[in-house]
Structure formats: C-alpha cells, structure tokens
Amino acid sequence: MTVRVADSLLLSRILSERVGYSVRCTEQTDSEGVFHRIGILGLDEQDGFTVHLRSGLTNAWAEFVPGAFSKPLLLELGRASEQQRVLFRCLVEGAKLRNIEVDMSINRKKCEPTNFDTWQRDWSVLSLSVKLQARTSATGDNTGLFVSAGELILNMILSLLPVEHLTDESSTQTGYAEGYEHQVLETRHERNRLNRAACIQIHGVSCKVCGFDFEDVYGPLGTAYIHVHHLIPVSTIAPGTVVDPSKDLIPVCPNCHAMLHRRTPPVTPEALRSSLRRHYVAGPNDHNLPTRVAENSK
Predict the structure, then answer these.
(1) Which of 34, 130, 147, 284, CA to CA, is 20 to 30 A from 98?
(2) Which residues 6+ apart lie within 8 Å of 194 measured at CB?
C-alpha cells in the first residue's frame, strides 16, 4: 500500500537545492499506487535514468530506474574511478549509520554496495534502491522522508556518473564557502559537492568543534546548513589524490570554520575545541555550549 507523499513542486525545489542540479518531480500513478518520478533537467531520460519515490504506512523508499537506451551509461557507471567509488561507499556507509537499507544488484546478481570485489565491471543491468523505516505523519505528508531518500539515491548515482553527462542546464550551484579557486572546472565542482554530501551523510550536520546545529536554533530555515572543512588544506592536495570524506572532511559551523583558518597551517579541530572550552563565557541565551563542546569531544 502506498500513500500520497508530498507536493511535486515542493519536492522539486528542495531536491534541486540539496543535490545541486535542477530536478523535475511529477506525481504519477501505477498499479502499486501514487509515486513521484524524478528526472534531472538536461539529462535525457531515455539515455539516462529517473528515480521513483514511494511511501507506505511505515516506510519510504526510492528506486533507480534506468532509461530504455541507458546501456552506455550503465557501462560507464560500472567503470567508475577509485575516487568515485570512495564517494559511493561513504554515502552507503552513512546511510547504514542511519538505519537506511541499501539494496543493490548488478546484472541481476545481488552484491554488497561497499564491497567492490562483488561488483562486476561490465554493467548491463543495475538495480539500486534505498528504504527508510519511519511512520508517516498524521497528515500523510512525507516530504521529509522523501527528500532524505531522494537526495541519497541521486547522490549515489551522481557519485559514479561521469559529469559530462550533465549539462549547464542541470546545475544549480554558483559557489562554495571553501576552496573556491579549486572548483573552476566542472569535474572538480561536482566532486567537491559530492564530497560534501558524503561528509554530511557520515558525520551529520552538527559542528564537530562546538556542536552547533542550525536546525535546532533556526528551525526549518537552518535544515542541512553547515560548512565542510578539509582536514588537509585544499591548496596542498595534489591532483589525483583520492579524498575520503569519512576521514578527510568534517562539518563545522561558519564561526569555527573561520577560526580554523585564522592561521597557516590551519588550527586543528582538537586545538580549537580545547581553546573554546578554556575561553568561552556563556552568553545570556546560550548556557549549553560548554556541554555541547564536551559531548562533541567524546
């Protein structure tokens, strides 16, 4: 049984903001009920793919649906680089930390998404889906669930997808808070965006130095807002270096991000956290920061 999930225009807007590419969501109905069909603008759906989003009474799930003429695309997905596969693995591991099920089959043979030894190289058929276990809201509006499922599976596919398949029409990004000079080329632009997504999937959106969470303070306006800090400065990373978002990146608030970069080389998160504990004087409306810092250092 599936239920009505969310407004298509709202889903289109939120997912476009989250994944960095313009997506179009349309509500459709088949024998299983109502679902949302998602396509990326500028990517031909027959040669590319769409994503189907559905929800039941206790779960929501997203499914990768290849186009009728997508075999060349599938072959390229199967030949993804080491960096692309690291991104994919981090996204899957982050999903598992949040009890999200990821199911993957290549050429009709079930495989472990994070064990590349189980991946066949030449892909002709790909089945990929994610499922979130959660009860629907009283109103039947599953926007939040669908954003989570849709964003995850889109990022998983985009992490393996050669960026030349995506046109300027697709992109919604105009800039980044860190390392802007290293994001001129589209390939770098795309990988940095996906590095950020994988970092957040693994580490969450609370600052790893002070524990600040924008949604806790600002409500929906602050949802998913956070900076991402490179533990190894971007300017020192050699071309071709494989960045592991689970080890090389951390989420930080803008204030802590600025303080980390006040010196060259940057201050370490541990040193900044120690400084914050020594020097912070609680303001009239925030007596919990020392507690957050202590909890974040565990």
Answers:
(1) 34
(2) 87, 155, 158, 159
